[in-house]
């Protein structure tokens, strides 16, 4: 039971860190806009740099257009994300640790930078790192819980905790 709890906790903490990277920024945007002399479009890119690279790397499809149209016609879609593929090819623990570690490093660097271009670049790299953690943690959960009933429960706790964590960070950020 102890290892089950620690596995689910590690997945929760990672998704919480990934969502916190977006939610915590909302309350800091006015201060950062003033301190870094950002205009309105640059302030939008402050959030978008992370979200675009996160979503793009997470959903990067390896199929060509011809393969995609064939798959759509046969209704057997099998999209493979690049970040998920890393977890399939290599040990997902390494992808998880690498993603979480680099996310922490890039986030720490973004916290200390005083250059707006450097901040945008570090936020973009943070999005790529965050995209590595999600599929890796899900692969770890699936491998750790081989029984389909246990998998469903673990993934349900994982998804629910991500929603609760994101809501808690957002409420904390907005109340400050």
How would you describe what is shown here?
This protein has 176 residues and is mainly α. It has one domain (14-167). Helices cover 85% and strands 0% of the residues. The protein is built from seven helices and no strands. The protein is elongated. Mean pLDDT is 75; it is low at 61-81.
Cα-to-Cα separation, first versus last residue: 37 Å
Total E-strand runs: 0
Main sheet, how many strands, which sense, barrel? none
Structural class by helix and strand composition:
mainly alpha
Q: What's the order of the H and E elements?
A: HHHHHHH
From the spread of the alpha carbons, the general shape counts as elongated
**Low-confidence sequence ranges:** 61-81
Total number of helical segments?
7
How much is the average pLDDT?
A: 75
Strand content: under 5%
Give the fraction of residues assigned to helices. Answer: over 70%
Count of domains = 1
> Radius of gyration in whole Å, from Cα?
18 Å
Task: Please render the helix and strand layout as text.
Elements: H1 2-35, H2 40-58, H3 65-74, H4 82-89, H5 92-112, H6 116-144, H7 148-175
Entry summary:
It contains 7 helices and no strands.
Features:
176 residues; 7 helices; mainly alpha
């Amino acid at each position: 039971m102890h290892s089950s709890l620690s596995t689910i906790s590690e997945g929760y903490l990672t998704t919480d860190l990934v969502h916190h990277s977006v939610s915590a920024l909302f309350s800091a945007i006015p201060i950062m806009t003033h301190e870094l002399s950002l205009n309105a479009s640059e302030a939008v890119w402050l959030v978008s740099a992370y979200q675009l690279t996160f979503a793009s790397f997470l959903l990067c499809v390896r199929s060509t257009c011809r393969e995609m149209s064939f798959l759509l016609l046969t209704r057997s879609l099998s999209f493979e994300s690049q970040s998920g593929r890393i977890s399939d090819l290599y040990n997902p623990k390494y992808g998880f640790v690498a993603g979480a570690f680099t996310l922490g490093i890039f986030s720490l660097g973004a916290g200390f930078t005083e250059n707006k271009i450097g901040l945008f670049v570090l936020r973009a790299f943070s999005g790529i790192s965050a995209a590595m953690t999600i599929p890796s943690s899900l692969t770890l959960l699936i491998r750790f819980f081989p029984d389909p009933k246990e998998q469903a429960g673990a993934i349900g706790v994982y998804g629910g905790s991500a929603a609760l964590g994101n809501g808690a960070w957002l409420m904390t950020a907005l109340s400050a």
